[in-house]
Each structure stands twice: as structure tokens, then as C-alpha cells.
Amino acid sequence: MTRRTTGWKLILFYVVLVLFSVIYLYPFLIQIATSFKTDSSATDSPLSLIPHPFDPSAWKRIFGIGGDNSVPIMRWLGNSVVITLVVTAARVFFDSLAGYALSRLRFRGRGFLFGTVLAVMSVPGVALLIPKFLMVSYLGIYDTYSAMVLPLLVDAAGVFIMKQFFDSIPVSVEEAARIDGAGVFRTFWSVVLPMARPALITLTILSFQGSWNEFTHFLVTTQSPELKTLVTGLASLASGDLGAGSQYPLKLGAALLTTIPVALLFFAFQRQFVRGANEGGDKG
Amino acid sequence: MTTTTGSRRRLRGGGGIHGREGVAGWVFTAPMIVVLGLFLFIPVLMALYVSFTNWNGNGSPFQGGQNAQWVGASNYTSLFTEDGLKRSTFMQSLANNFWYVLLVVPLQTAISFFLALIVSNRFLKGKGFFRTAFYFPSVTSSIAISVVFLFLFANSGAVNAVLETFGVKGPAWFSDSRGLLHLLLQAFGVGDSPSWAQGEVLGRSVWDWLSGPSVAMCVIIILAIWTTTGTFMLMFLAALQDLPGEVDEAAMLDGVSPWQKLRYVTLPMLKPTIFLVTTLGLIGTWQVFDQIYVMGKGAPGNTTLTPAFLSYKQSFTSLQYGSGAAMSFIVFLLIVALTAFQRWVMRDKDAPRRRRRTPGGATAAAVANDQVAGVPAGRTR
């Protein structure tokens, strides 16, 4: 903008921005407030931010207090946590291994492999529902934790991010290590990886967010209620599979619980999120 | 080229560093090859095979027999040529998705550009807050957000409560299958299904084709715009920051008005980003799935059905995996074509800006791709 941006114009800008902030943030505030309302006050005063009467029973049900286990949200939470941790750890390790090899190691077929990674990245996720189901059934692991976790252990976009990062750092340090006689893995593990911290943080965040929010993969590879994650459980809760009535406080509370971990991560690592958005990342 | 030098050196060095590198290269990439091969590459081929059978979910799809007969290309051709419910439903899903794309892509591009322009203002305080506020919806789970929207747009929900304060009675959003364009035409006195719109195209009347998105679909459209503008705004912000300052100053010295500057300086220079955002939008909008799953699974009256969701429903609910797979490959081809088009147009344009990060320059296509595949940290759909 130019120097002319002064006075009333700046005020107008603030008005526009505040208006948009309300549109973008108010739904979350309503969500928090509603999770502490009673079923009837949720629909009677949908806009109010102060629960009246204040009713924590939705949260009691979420945390399984009081013996009502019709909606086992804690079980879902446990599944989500375990799967997210395993997938994130594996992705960070395997993606950087592969990214490093594609960037630095000279071996026959490297160009072909990288080309394949690029091609794989353009395959839309929604076209993979039936393929994933077919393979998982073929291997006889349909409806197991293996089916949920194994296909997510490596992602092409993560490999790509790591390769791009390794391309951008100088080779000299590694060469020194190599001359000192360190093996390839040794060099990778104790010399290169520590230098790759920023990229590893970005990759960790993207993997965490991606596997925590994952939906379609679990939808087509599982069916047991015991294998539901927060996201798939929430989806079945929302589409009315579990219990009658609108149950808005419960649904919005569960949705909030699903949002919180990624939100915390987001506020703690905003800069990396922004970098992720501009450099590519995870398939939703 | 490095591969050839590598192997040549290996021959000469005989098991020296590069020989080990050759082995290490394959060992390091082995997990990736196994996982992507086993759960992505081969499965796509399997699904391609299934799309040529009439597998009904019983037994193995690969052993032929009653349950999975080879039917040639009929799963594909019947979607376009065979009169019947399957074709009309598929055509309706294409139309639904088309209206969805037509509204979401321009609006998300325009709004995110507009927000980026304002937030990038030099004299503005609290930029960080606004940027965070606009970006936050794009990092949350699509399912969780859809649940919130289910509540906001419920009959007695927040949106209708707001409308009521303006004296407007809001519709029953999720059960209203009336098309937006129909409502508009009717407001101008065009009756229900006039004579000029009676003809049939691909199993649907012209009037049906012209319905516009249903009221229920509009909720999903609003949701899509609301969750994606933040990501796209960040892309525009990055591009705005990359604009050379001299141009700004020159424009200022020449005394052009802000509007002129926007029209003749900023917009032309942001062309690559606008193109990127538009094509990312196009690619993302043809993949919408999660929101539809939560918000009615195609209801009301199939007006929120999209080809991607229909392919899921056809397979996992109707147990017609062959035709479901065929539908998903049609979506697949459409999206790959859009992606290829984007990569082709962007093959050079993005290089100069990125050069410092990707030495060698040859990776321009890859960089363009990274953004394509980078259905990024923030959602683009």
C-alpha cells in the first residue's frame, strides 16, 4: 500500500479485519460455550457465549465419568493418540531417510525413484479409497491396527520436503565426516540429521496434524467400534449412528477435543505451520 | 546424471565409498518403496482391474467367477451412455460438484487475496493476530469443523438466529434441496420447469442441469471458503512480500492512485500466485469428501452428492465396487489432468523466486508440484 493509507482508511481496514475475525473465530467460541450448555439451552440460545445454566454433563460423558459408556470417546482418544504417535515417529524417520538418499546418495535408479515420488504426490486421496480397501482386504488385515498404521508410515510429500531441504544445505560437513571414516548411516544419523532440525520440526508438525485429522483412510480400512479414532468416532456420532437426539453439547465437546491438540501445536509452532503451508505438506 | 557418474565411479572404485552408497541408497529408500508400492501403487492397479469387473464385495475380486466377472469397459461407458438411475445420479453428482467449484474457487481466491492485501498493509498493527485468526480454521480437522457447522446451520442454530435479528427467516439449510439458480429464476418470474428447459441432456432435463447448488450445498460451499481462505491468504501474503520494493516506490513517485497500482502493478505481478491458488482450488474442490460425509451423505435429494462421494457410496454401500472404482478413476483422471496442466503452465514461472532455496533451478517443476501435492498444512479443500 502507499503512503496515502492514513486516517479513515486505516480505520476502515480495522473494521473489515475485525468483522472477518469475528466470522472466523466466533464459531469456535460458540463451540466452547455450547459444550457447557444443556441440550435444550444449546438450541434455545445458540448465539450466547455464556452457558446458562452451566452444565458440564457433556464433558462428564466425554471423560466417561458417571458410567455412561454409550459413546466411548476416551477409547477413541486413546486410539488417536497411539496411532498419531506411531505414524508421526515413523514418518519423520523414514521420510528423512528416503529424502536424504534421494538428495545425496548416488545410486542407480535414483532419478526414477524421485520421479515416482513426484507422480505419487499428484494422486488425489479420494481416488485411493477403493484401492486401499482392496489391498488391505487382500492382505487379510482389514479392520486391524496394522491396516490403520502401516499404509501411513511413509508419505511422499514428506519425502519430498526432506529431499528439498537436504538439497539446500552444503555437502562439505558430511564430506568431512566421510573422510573421517564414518559410514553412510553414521553420517546421516549423527551429522546430517542434527542439522536438519528446522525441516524435522516442520515434518513432525505436518505428520502429527495429518495423522490426527486423518479420516478417509480409517473409514475404508476399519469397521469395528473398538478401532474408531476421535475423528472417525466423531463422524459417526455426527451422522446420528450413536444415540438419539441432537446432543449438540456432546458433539461439539467431542469436536473440541479433536481440535485441541492440533490447535495447541498450531499456537506453539505457528512459524512452522506457515512454512508448511507455503512449502507443501501432508495430504489431508 | 549423477547416477551414471556414481555407477562409473563405483566400477572403478570397486566397493569404495560409492559402492556402499549404491547399497545404502536402496536400503534408505526401502521403507518408502515398500509402503508406497504396497499401499499406493499396486492398490491403484488392483482398483483399475476391479473397475473392469462387476465385483460385489463377496469373495476375492481377482478370481473371476460369479462374484467378479470381467465386464470390459462397461462400468465406464454405462455412466455416459446407458439410460437409467446410475447415469442420472452420476450426472447429477457432476453437476453438483460443478456448481460447487464455480462458487468456491472464485470466492476463495478473491477473499483470500482481499484479506492478504489488507493484512499486508504497512501501517497496520496487530497483523499477527489477524493472520492467525484467518488461518486457524484451515488447520483443524475437517470432520470437527463440519460438526460445528452442523450446529451453526441447524434450524434453530446460530446462523438462523442472526438472520432472525435482521427479520429474515432462515431456511432449513440441510433439508432444502431447492437450487439457488432456480430460486433466483423464480424470483424473476420464470416458472417451474418452463418449456424451453424441457429437453433432456444425458438423462437429465435442461432445467435440472440449471438448478445451481442446492441450499444444502451452499452450507458446504461456505464451509469450504471459510476453511481454505486462510491457507490461500498466506500464499498471497508470501507473494506480496516478495514484490520488489522499488516498484512500489516508483509507482508512488509517479503519483498513481491505490486503485491504479492494484490494477496495473500488483495484480499483474501476482499473476503466478493467482494462477497457483486458482488451480489448487480447482484440484481441491473436485476432491471434497469429508464434509459431505458428515453433512448428510448426499442428502437432500442427492443435491450434495459429488462424484468422489458417489464412488464411495456405490462401492461401500451399494456394493457395486466395479462401477464405484470406475467413477473414482474418472475423478482421478480429471484431477491428474488439472494437476498436469498446472505443472505445465508453471514449469518456468516459479523458478526465479525459488532459486535461492532450490539450487540447480532444474527443480522448478518439482517446486510447482510441491505446492500441488501440498494439500498443505492448511487445507486447500
- CATH topology type of the largest domain in chain B: MetI-like fold
CATH class of the largest domain in chain A: Mainly Alpha
CATH class of the largest domain in chain B: Mainly Alpha
Topology order of chain A in helix (H) and strand (E) letters:
HHHHHHHHHHHHHHH
Strand neighbour order, sheet with most strands of chain B: 1-2
Structure summary, number of beta strands of chain A: 0
Give your account of this protein's structure.
The complex is a heterodimer of chains A (284) and B (381). In chain A, 68% of the residues lie in helices and 0% in strands. The model of chain A is unreliable at 280-284 (pLDDT under 50). Chain A has 284 residues and is mainly alpha-helical. Chain A folds into 2 domains: 8-62, no CATH class; 73-279, Orthogonal Bundle (MetI-like fold), CATH 1.10.3720. Chain B has 381 residues and is mostly helical. Chain B is built from 18 helices and 2 strands. In chain B, strands 1-2 form a two-stranded antiparallel ribbon. In chain B, α3 packs across α4, α4 runs antiparallel to α13 and α5 (127-135) packs antiparallel against α10. Chain B starts with a helix and ends in an 8-residue tail after the last helix. Mean pLDDT of chain B is 83; it is low at 1-16 and 350-376. The chains are: A mainly alpha (284), B mainly alpha (381). Chains A and B meet through α1, α2, α4, α5 and α6 of A and α1, α2, α4, α5 and α6 of B.
